[in-house]
Amino acid sequence: MMNMELSDKSCADDAAQQEETRIREAYARRQSVSPAGLYSCFNLGNLFMLQERERGVLSILAQAGWSSLHGAQILDVGCGNGLWIRDLIRWGADPSSITGVDLLESRVANARSLIPAEVTVQCGNATVLEVPDESFDLIVQSTVFTSILNEGVRRQLAREMLRVLKPTGLILWYDFHVNNPRNPDVRGVSRREIQGLFKGCDIELRRMTLAPPITRLVAPVSWWACQFFSLIPFLCTHYLGTIRKPLRHE
Ligand SMILES: C[S@@+](CC[C@H](N)C(=O)[O-])C[C@H]1O[C@@H](n2cnc3c(N)ncnc32)[C@H](O)[C@@H]1O
Q1: Does ligand 1 come within 6 angstroms of the Cβ of 147?
Q2: Where are the domains of the chain?
Q3: Which candidate in 12, 37, 126, 130 could, as Cys together with 77 as Cys, close a disulfide (CB 3.0–4.6 Å)?
Q4: In whole angstroms, what is the distance from residue 169 CA to residue 101 CA?
């Protein structure tokens, strides 16, 4: 029995290692082919998506009882260049209460150069966090699960996030549910898959973000048209929402 458990663990470690290598290669490839300024805020489509997301996130946090993130212990898994960390600080989070983790050294270095030194930014795999159980009030996951193609690794990450989430804590989920035909290195995460990853949890999701290629075309012509089209769930590619642990009955 013990041997079987050990061999399951070593298979999981191998899968995580292989997936890590694949992600590194995918990001290196993508960096060389992405047009400069694709994600710039000077692109009105990107600005539209960021502002809409910010309104959505703040409304979710307000519904969860937060009027400031002051005092909250926060983890950003797959923090990339620290975009969310800068937002979290604008929303009142204490820099010294924020931890960001990302696989890629270049992104971690970028994040460190853009955010206050009090923020802890670790370079590593978020499937194995060196953090005690039940440490965080808020965990942000934004477009990280879609970067992971291996289902077992997705499950490991979900398990690890639940391990370090406080019983009263909240996971903030923002990720796409459709596949991107132009990028085979990512795969959408459906509502059903999210429910499977976070079994037994209380999950609330809503569709948002008008398909980015459409938004980038339409926003420079008509902001209003973008607002209108983003009300049509069928045209929206992402889920924004929350995941809570089931209530404990003691
Ligand atoms: C599309 S980027 C999103 C970055 C950031 N969350 C944002 O929304 O701006 C996905 C990030 O997840 C990171 N990532 C993917 N798998 C990871 C893992 N297992 N552990 C830590 N970071 C991971 C990648 O290195 C990449 O920086």
Answers
A1: yes
A2: 2-244
A3: 126
A4: 18
